[in-house]
Amino acid sequence: MQIESRFLELIKLHRENALEMEYHAPYKSKLNKLGIATANEKGRIVFKRIYYQIIFALEFIDNFLDEFDNEEANIYNRNELLNLRSNENIIERKINLAELAKIDIAYSLVFYGISSESEAALRRQLLKFYNEDFVNPIISFVCFSLLIFIPIITSLKLFLL
User: What would the mean pLDDT of 33-58 be, rounded to a whole number?
Assistant: First the structure.
């Protein structure tokens, strides 16, 4: 009985947290009297926005990787590649390590964001697992692409995020 009540308590906590989530679209936010961005959306819809951001980031990474050598040894640093190749879960599930890198990097882009403040943190995080010759061009590609495309996309009002 104690496990069931704890489980229901966790579900209630999750529901409350989800309802309190807010999404502030940087190009749509209005400032209140204190200069603080007001929420554009609130509640469970925020999960959908995060999902769209990850999909958008995956498309950027896919475009980059079309031009990059997708061999695992060129993507991962040596220690991480050894760890992944010896991971029983990855071996058993036959997980494609290049695809795993795409998903991880897309999530990291959404989590850390791309700005002058977050770029260093993102770079440090990615360099823990990936080769520098792989990470630096990705960050440059994404930053450059966003500088060019976001103003165009937002002016056309096609930006989904």
Answer: 76
